[in-house]
Amino acid sequence: MTETPKGKKNVLLYNLIFVVVGLGLFLFLWFAPEETTPRLPHDDTHEKFHEIVDKKEAEKSCGDCHSDDGVAPLPDGHPPKYRCLFCHKRDQ
Ligand code: HEC
Ligand code: HEC
Question: What is the spatial distance between Cα 79 and Cα 58, in angstroms, rounded to a whole number?
């Protein structure tokens, strides 16, 4: 088993690329803009949803108010709305 110098060089190059890409990703995430999605509010309306442990269970009622014919329709251009609480995080 003898490795040619060229093969070794390639391994080094790939390791280097791996490290550079990893570092780039790390810096990208580190400097990523702060999360701006509004969290689930703490008020009389929403307090009970903080207490329901199962997110899926809690989300069942969101649409009662947050729908086109509810008291607080979603804004235009709202992202796809399945699983509200994945985006609108609880507890803070
Ligand atoms: C009984 C009606 C009602 C229900 C049920 C309800 N909401 Fe709301 N929600 C409102 C109203 C009214 C507002 C606007 C005033 C306010 O902040 O309370 C609002 C505001 C919000 C906001 C905006 C907060 C902000 O900072 O601008 C988010 C996010 C939200 N609701 C998410 C949810 C989610 C997720 C659920 C289900 C777990 C839910 N709501 C259930 C009535 C409701
Ligand atoms: C994929 C992520 C995502 C999901 C899922 C999602 N939302 Fe949102 N929601 C957002 C973002 C981002 C905004 C802010 C949009 C903007 O500022 O234009 C927003 C805005 C809102 C607002 C208005 C907040 C304000 O201050 O005007 C309400 C109310 C709301 N969402 C409720 C809900 C409800 C109820 C559900 C589930 C039926 C839901 N959202 C699911 C990402 C999400």
Answer: 19
Tell me phi and psi for residue 83, to 5 degrees: 55, 65
Contact 50 CB / ligand 1 (< 6 Å): no
User: Is 80 exceeded by the pLDDT of residue 82?
Assistant: yes
Cα(25)–Cα(12) distance, integer angstroms: 20
pLDDT of residue 74 exceeding 90, the answer is yes
Measure the N-to-C terminal CA separation of the chain; round to a whole number of Å: 58
Query: pTM of this prediction?
Result: 0.80
Distant-in-sequence, close-in-space partners of 79: CB < 8 Å, separation ≥ 6? 87
Phi first, then psi: give them for residue 70, nearest 5 degrees: -90, -175
How far does the centroid of ligand 1 lie from the alpha carbon of residue 90, in Å?
12
Ligand with the closest atom to the CA of 84:
2
Token digits of residue 77? 């251009």
Q: What percentage of the chain has pLDDT greater than the value 70?
A: 92
